[in-house]
Amino acid sequence: MALQSILLLLAVLVIGTVQGYVAYNITPVYRGSKYMVSKNAEPFDLAQMNGRCRGSGGYLLQLDSFREYIYLKSELSRIRDHSLVYTGITDLGSEGHFYNYNDKKPAAYLKWRRHQPDNWAGKEHCVNLSYYGLNDIDCRGTARYICEIPV
Q1: For residue 122, what are the CA distances in angstroms to 13, 99, 125?
Q2: What is the model's pLDDT at position 4?
Q3: Is the CB of residue 48 less than 8 Å from the CB of residue 145?
Q4: What is the set of domains in the chain, with CATH numbers?
Q5: Quick one: DSSP state of residue 69?
Q6: Of 91, 7, 119, 69, whose CA–CA distance to 61 is shortest?
Q7: What is the pTM for the complete model shown?
Q8: How many Å apart are CA 76 and CA 42, to the nearest integer?
Q9: What is the pLDDT at residue 39?
């Protein structure tokens, strides 16, 4: 019975919700924010996913520093199938000038994977984060997304 209680407590600490959608808590709090990754991959829509994050008190990830980038890369390596985690960084309407979708400010920190961004086929206007770094990607793909929630 005690083991079942401990396992239930761990499950509550690891899995949370983003406006009613099940998500992984990557960390309780890191430098004033907590981060949640959607549990399942689904068709991505910047406005809709940012709305889900906003409904939980946050927004799609905005990278602010090298430390945040390194920390999240490390944490994402612990989640299975983490290779395509959409962020809130985009260059929609301003090719090559990446900004945060939520507040429309220029992206503060961009550490691209080798040979990125490449805007392959003229369709890559969103950004994903993985253990390997940032990559520009088609905004209409299917993947998980990451919310940043200030605490």
Answers
A1: 41, 18, 8
A2: 45
A3: no
A4: 2-150 (3.10.100.10)
A5: H
A6: 69
A7: 0.83
A8: 18
A9: 82
Q: With contact defined as beta carbons under 8 Å apart, do 128 and 87 qualify? A: yes
Q: What is the pLDDT at residue 81?
A: 58
Q: How is 5-69 classified by DSSP, letter by letter?
A: HHHHHHHHHHEEEETTEEEEEEEEEETTEEEEEESS-EE--HHHHHHHHHHTT-EE-----HHHH
Strands 142-150 and 85-90, bridge-based pairing: parallel
**In the Cβ-directed half-sphere of 145, how many Cα atoms lie within 13 Å?**
32
Residue 51, H or E segment: helix 46-55
Those residues of the chain that have pLDDT short of 70 are: 1-22, 27, 80-83
d(CA 121, CA 101): 22
Given a contact cutoff of 8 angstroms between Cβ atoms, the answer to whether 26 and 75 are in contact is: yes
